[in-house]
Amino acid sequence: MSQKGFTLWFTGLSGAGKTTLARLVEKELKQRGHKVEVLDGDIVRTNLSKGLGFSKEDRDTNIRRIGFVCDLLARNDVVAIAAAISPYREIRDEIRRITTAPFIEAYVECPLDVLVERDVKGLYKRALAGEIKNFTGVDDPYEAPGSPEVLVNSSTETPEDSAGKIINRLVELRLVQAALEAALSEDEDSVVRARLEALGYV
To answer: pTM of the prediction?
Structure first.
């Protein structure tokens, strides 16, 4: 199976584990021979979307920029992985509509009380105390996907289990080869190369 690009879009509340899962999936896909780029929400904010605030308009602009870059990468046979809160369903659906390559939405679910408990930065506590305004999940809404391609729950699953579930779904969708098929493809490439070397072509 030829390797084509697609967008894998992680959405979920802050601290749910989007970046952790994105990196685990990235590692596995690279081992299977895919070209992969991860667009992490915090890093994008620092570079691509520097200067934007947290109004709904600015959040939508941020997500549109991430979506544009993902589609550009995917059209060039790169797996583009986005890990951004992307709280509004309408803008996520808009990105899905305008994306020319396959778009896979992965919802990383986690209850608010668990997020508050694991909140190493103290952001949720500050938001709940009114020190931070327009904080997603506290005083600004998060709209969960209605029918994501894959749903994981970081409060009940290990990161490895969730990443495995995502990889399996990508295999089901025929976007990624199963591990055995990928290994066989690598072996075939090695055999072809050895034959070419023997003939003096490499």
So the answer is: 0.86
